[in-house]
Amino acid sequence: MALNNLRDFLKAIDEAGELARIAHPVRARLEIAEIADRVMKSPGGGPALLFEHVLLENGQRSTQPVAINLFGSMRRMCLALGTEKLDDIGGRISDMLNLKVPEGLLGKLAMLPRLAEMGKFPPRVKGGRPPCQEVVQRDDAVNLDVIPFLTTWPEDGGRYITLPMVITIDPSRGIRNVGMYRVQVLGRNTLAMHWQRHKVAAGHWREMAGRGERMPVVIALGGDPASIYSGSAPLPPTIDEFLFAGFLRRQPVELARAITCALDVPSEAEMVLEGYIDPAEELVLEGPFGDHTGFYSLADYYPRVHVTAITSRRDPIYPATLVGRPPMEDFYLGHATERIFLPLLKLTVPEIVDYHMPAPGIFHNLVFVSIDKQYPGQAYKVMNALWGQGLMSLAKVLVVVDKEVNVQDPNEAWWVALNNIDPERDVRFTMGPIDVLDHSSRAFTYGSKMGIDATRKWKEEGFDREWPRLITMDEKTKQDVDGMWEKLGIRLKNVSGEQ
Ligand SMILES: Cc1cc2nc3c(=O)[nH]c(=O)nc-3n(C[C@H](O)[C@H](O)[C@H](O)COP(=O)(O)O)c2cc1C
Question: Residues enclosing ligand 1, CB less than 6 A?
C-alpha cells in the first residue's frame, strides 16, 4: 500500500527504526537547524527528527510539531517512493520506454498496459471536506507568525518554508506544475516566492505578469511523500508532478478544490497556504539565505505572495528541511532523481551507461558520466547533448569516462579521469545558462562550462602512443588467497574504523 500522507510516512519511518522524537523544548530559530545539521552530517544521513516541543520566535510553544530530515537516508528515500531500490523505478521507466513491438497479437496486446503505465494513475479531484481543510482560516484570520517556520542560518533574511509543494498552472496550456521552491515569510500574510528563472513556475509567472493577470498560487505542506519528492524532480513542463507521483505510488494522488483560488490542493496535506501574486505590485527583496551551495545566496527580487487562506488538519505537523554545506537531506532527494531519470537520459543519449552527481558538487557543479564509446569524439557529443537537456543545461563541469568506470564512486572516477587526461587537449570550455545559485559566474545566470573528455583516446583522435592496461590481479591468485584468508590472521578495519 502506498503511503498517503505525512503520518503514514512517519509511521513507516518509525517502524524502520529511523525516527527520533525530541520532547525537549527547541527553538524554531536556528536551534532546530543546528541539531538537524549535526544529524544530517552523521554517517548514512542520521534519523528523521520529530520535534514535539517547538518554541516560536516570541518564545511561546508552537501547537505544531516540526518534522525534518524525513527523506535523509537511502532507506527513507526508498520508503517514500515505495521501492526497495531507487534503480527499480528507473527499471519501470525503462520497461515503459522499451518500444520494441513484440511478435504476435498476444505480445502486442500485452504491451498496451505497459505503454499506459505513466497515465494510469492521474490525480483525482474529490468533493467533500478533505483532511487538509479541517480547519480554515481566511483573510484577517491568516497569521503566519504562529506557524513554526524555521530560521535556518544566522544571516538568513528571515523565516523560511523549506519543503513546500508550490502549485501553479500554465496559463496557456492549463498544465499544473508542482515545484519545491523555498518561500520566505515577510509578514502575517505575505511571502516572497523564490522560484528561479529557469524553473517551470517562473515561466508561468512571466507569462501571467506579461498579460497583467493575477496569478493564483498554492503552497502545500506535507502530503504523500511521493508527491513531496516529485516537486523536486526536474520533469518537463508538460508533465503534471501529481501524475508522476501517481506513477511512483501506483495510486492516484487525491486532490480537492482550494477554497479561495482556482487551483486544486493535495487532500492529504498537513497544511495549505492559498494565495495570489498581483502583477501590478513591485517585486520584493528575498534573502539572503544559507543555501545548498554552502554559501549564503545573495538577496534578490522575487514576487510577493498574498496569503488569502490557511487551511489545515486539526493537528498539523509542519514538515521542513535544512540546506547548507553538503551533505544534507537534499542529497537523497537529488540522488533519487539521478536514478529515476537515467533511463530518460538514455532515451536521447543512448551511449550513456551511468552518471552520478556527488554530494560536494551539489548537483549542478559536477556530473560524472560513463559512456560506451564507439567512435571518435563521442565524449564531446555526449557533453553537448547533456548541456541541451532540461536542467542538465545548468551543469558546470561534466567529466566523461569509459563504460567500465564506476561513476558512483567519485574517488574511482577522479582517479581514472585524472590519469587519462592531457588537460590542454581534453578540456573544452563553452558558454551557457548557469544556475541562479552560482556566485562565481561572470554574470548572473550566464557563464562558462567545462567538459573533460577522460575517455581512452583513440588513434583517430590523434593519439598514436600505446594506451596502458589497468592493473588487476588474476582470478586464480585471488581465489587462492580467498581460500587462505582466515588462516592469515589479518584483521582489516572497515571504513568507520571498527574491526
Ligand atoms: C530542498 C530543496 C530546495 C529547493 N529550493 C529551490 C528554490 O528555492 N528555488 C528553485 O527554483 N528551486 C529550488 N529547488 C530545486 C527545484 O525543486 C527543482 O529544480 C525542481 O525541478 C523544480 O521544479 P520545476 O522543474 O517544476 O520547476 C530546491 C530543491 C530542493 C530539494
Answer: 177, 179-182, 194-196, 199-201, 232-234, 321, 323, 330, 333, 391
